[in-house]
Amino acid sequence: MSRPQILDMKSFRFLNFLFIISFLSCGGVDLIDDYVPPSLRITTPFTELTLGNSYTFTARYFDNVGDAVENASIQWESSHPELLQIDAQGNATPLKVGTVQIVATLTTPDGIVLTDEINLSIQSNVVLEPTPPETPVEEEMEMPVEEEMPMENTVTPTLSITNAISQITAATSYQFEVAYTDEMGNPATPPQVTWTSSNNDIIEVDANGTIQAIMSGTVTLTVSIQISSTLIQAHNQILVNAPVMEMITSFSGKVVSKSSYTLQGGFTLAESENGLILSLDEDYKASTALPGLYVYLSNNANTTAGAYEIGKVTVFAGAHSYQLPNSIELMDYQYILYWCKPFNVKVGEAKIYD
Amino acid sequence: MKYYLLPLFLLINFVSHAQWIKEKGDAYLKLGGWSLLANEHFTDEGKLDPNATRGLFISSLYGQIGLSKKINLIAYVPFFVKNYQFAQVSKTNNKEYEPRQVYNGLGDINLGIEYGFGQLKNWHFSGTLTLGIPSGADAAGIDGSYQTGDGEFNQLLQGNVGKSFSLGGQGFYFKSYLGYNNRTEGFSDELHSYAETGTQFLKSKLLLLTRMHWIKPLYNGTLDASNANGAIFANNIESLVLGGEIAVLLSSKWGISLGASTPLYGKVIYRASSFSGGVFLNL
């Protein structure tokens, strides 16, 4: 007598079908619409340059998904080479006070020409004295010799600094010029001049009268010549100011929701001594209904691929901040993204800069 | 997000084709598969948002056994749960950002007992207590979001009512319940409401039924994104799901069934139709 059969062959086939479906049902692909226009971005956000200094500009090329392309060939151009020269490596030297535009250009592998521009103001690194002192100091060394000079045909030689300054910016240089009149009262090339600084830690000066301002402080610069037994000198008291790098150091804006979830608030991305700080304002508010809400910095608002993950969101209302590592610079990313990481859902974004 | 599925487990699998409580020694067994694939969801405000395509496939065993004339034991065992996500690939350059993710595991087991209160005219009354055993993984997969369970022990107490009736000479049945689901571990408690009606054709060999299931959270839980680690999509789920099923008896003891359900409205659940199939035995 055979055992009663609860499931026949048809049933087992159906069950097999279910299990086959279960193992095959996890395939598939989500295509992420992650195209962004390729871009070239000058990442050194100078706004003002100072004469006597040199600067290195950098730019980065981001491809059509926002990924940075290393070692891209970038050309640099100055709108006014007479005001500012820039070489192929982005090293710029301001030559004159004025306003200039630097243009970075790159041709993509697809033949698309990308440019980015930055407008700059070139400022002088010194403050000229309004009335250059022309008070030669005469020191009598040997009176008997002077008494023998023919007084009626000679005058006292003079030495003066013709481009004296009252202030200079540290870490810049300046070339002094002098004027000399000889015993006959005629302008002449001065004999061997000697330049000295009262404090070489603050200003160094070479034999040609070129000074290099090193650090903040006050210095008396002296130029002197020896005429026979007479030492003639001119002085210039100079205040050295600390250098001020005129750059953009922060961006502010608004975080907005790009989904049906609550997300809002102002933000500031600012430089600090320890790296960038991303601060969210008091009006910040985010939905607590999302699992795995993360915040990112990205160059593509459509994906977190290639983005820098700041971390999981743990504050959902009110002011708070994120300390970013020193390796991240202000211009490295264009967007702040809020993303539901487990389910790849874009929640919101903020554009850091255009 | 998968946790919105748990109420559907109850809906799909805890409904036998037997209309009323089983007699002593009778049993209903069902081996089933249930599948869902979704690329959008209802948000916490009931609005629709996209998401990475996620799927869930559950192979389960459901059984209802009559211990006595008035007492039935009920068990739902999702013995194989596949939680998966499609690969994420760039449309621009075909670069794979994230490979497909899959997690297989045991789901949350439900054990229940139903007590028949009796009959008043054509109305049958019973009560059911279902215990949700946290046998599934509440954190699974690469980022913990491929859970197969919610990690909490819940108790669903429901009052059932059923009635047979005739329309135009065609026999129908109707059954419904109201339930209170007491959830633990900071999850909000829930009210459950369910209604089903069906009719048979071909000498009772073909059953067609339709059902509706409504879940309303009481928002008395404490879990949210600020204090939970990924499990919050199990919380404050609200849904109104419409479904239908066709069951065919292929012999006196066994048959097959196919069903489909779709959410008409919801919060914190996927918006996608689910499909199910199974083999059932009436013993």
The quaternary state of the protein chains shown equals heterodimer
- Major sheet details of chain A: 9 strands, antiparallel
Mean pLDDT of chain A: 87
Low-confidence stretches of chain A: 1-6
- Enumerate the spans of chain B where pLDDT stays under 50 for 5 or more consecutive residues: 1-14
Distance between the termini of chain A: 85 Å
Mean pLDDT over the residues of chain B: 87
Rounded to the nearest angstrom, the radius of gyration of chain B is: 19 Å
Number of helices of chain B: 1
**What is the radius of gyration of chain A computed over CA atoms, rounded to a whole number of angstroms?**
35 Å
Class based on secondary structure composition and strand pairing of chain A: mainly beta
Portion in strands of chain A: over 45%
Which structural class is indicated by helix and strand composition of chain B? mainly beta
Order of helices and strands of chain B: HEEEEEEEEEEEEEEEE
